[in-house]
Write a structure and sequence with these properties.
9 strands; two-stranded antiparallel ribbon; Rossmann fold; about 300 residues; single chain
Length: about 300
């Protein structure tokens, strides 16, 4: 497995997973699926946490409906069929990681793992009832193409949801690292192609972008209670950003050795000051970093 994939999974996996319940709910999954089944697509699946959670949510819903049918005097059978699951990523390494995770925890559930681009989805029109993308849109050079492709691949009435990080300073890890680069390093190094990193943290911009792509009923909600509990030192924080990200890694790798050393020292200084500021604490007490996300969604209009 590639080092970046391992670093992302270990560093960001426990954090990004905290957005998944909201992500699925805003995609209307599984509650809004038709009784005859339905199709779910996880775009930029990465380590596979969204697909795994979708399967578990569908299984729970099926069990609840069987129980309700049996309690009503029936034989427990219901007409609701299990949905189909598809996971897409541009990285074959990530797909292998996702397939291993899903197959290990939900053996026997058929999932199509597809290597492909989120900006040119390799699926027919009107294929899916729900599409979700957990922090993947941040890594696309043309996110508007992804929005248009999602609309094309959704069935009428289907929903898209996607998550991004809220903008600093409320996302404390980004405030620490980006603030340290601005203060002690060079924030103007060349970065991979892409829109402003926090573009989709702005609700009006999300509404405009979704409407332009053809969606209706757009909505953005903040998942306030996300905490990065598995990062416990400034050095670990710096390494996760250096080894497990794309655009921020390019920013850090673009520093000269002198600048990099100064940035690391500044991250350590700010990290210590931030985490020692614990309500009712002090004396070296620490707390998880606050890392709220923004989950946005839109619906494909019904056919006229």
């Amino acid at each position: 497995m590639c080092h970046t994939c391992q670093a992302y999974d270990a560093g960001f996996g426990p954090l990004t997973s905290q957005a998944i319940p909201t992500l699925l709910a805003k995609a209307g999954f599984p509650g809004d699926l038709p009784s005859g089944g339905g199709g779910f697509l996880d775009v930029a699946t990465g380590p596979g946490y969204v697909t795994l959670a979708a399967i578990e949510a569908a299984n729970k819903t099926a069990a609840e409906r069987r129980q309700a049918a049996a309690g009503g005097g029936g034989d427990g059978d219901i007409s609701w069929a299990a949905p189909t699951f598809t996971a897409l990523d541009f990285s074959g390494t990530f797909l292998a990681l996702a397939a291993g995770r899903v197959g290990g925890q939900c053996p026997g559930v058929p999932v199509a793992f597809v290597e492909g681009s989120a900006e040119v989805l390799p699926f027919a029109n009107d294929t899916f009832d729900a599409i979700a993308c957990n922090f993947g849109i941040l890594h696309l050079s043309d996110p508007d193409a992804f929005l248009r492709e999602s609309l094309r691949c959704l069935r009428p009435g289907g929903r898209l949801s996607f998550s991004v990080w809220a903008a600093p300073p409320v996302t404390e890890a980004f405030a620490l690292v980006l603030g340290s680069v601005s203060a002690k390093g060079n924030p103007d190094v060349p970065l991979p192609a892409g829109p402003p990193f926090f573009r989709f943290a702005d609700a009006p911009e999300v509404a405009r972008s979704l409407a332009e792509a053809g969606f209706e009923a757009s909505e953005s909600v903040v998942v306030e209670n996300m905490r990065w509990a598995n990062v416990s030192s400034a050095a670990q924080l710096y390494d996760v950003f250096l080894e497990g990200t794309a655009r921020t890694r390019a920013l850090l790798e673009g520093q000269t050795p002198v600048e990099a050393k100064a940035v690391q020292a500044e991250v350590a200084k700010r990290f210590q000051a931030l985490l020692a500021d614990v309500e009712g604490g002090g004396g070296g007490a620490t707390r998880p970093l606050r890392m709220p996300a923004v989950v946005s969604s839109g619906r494909k209009p019904l056919a006229k």
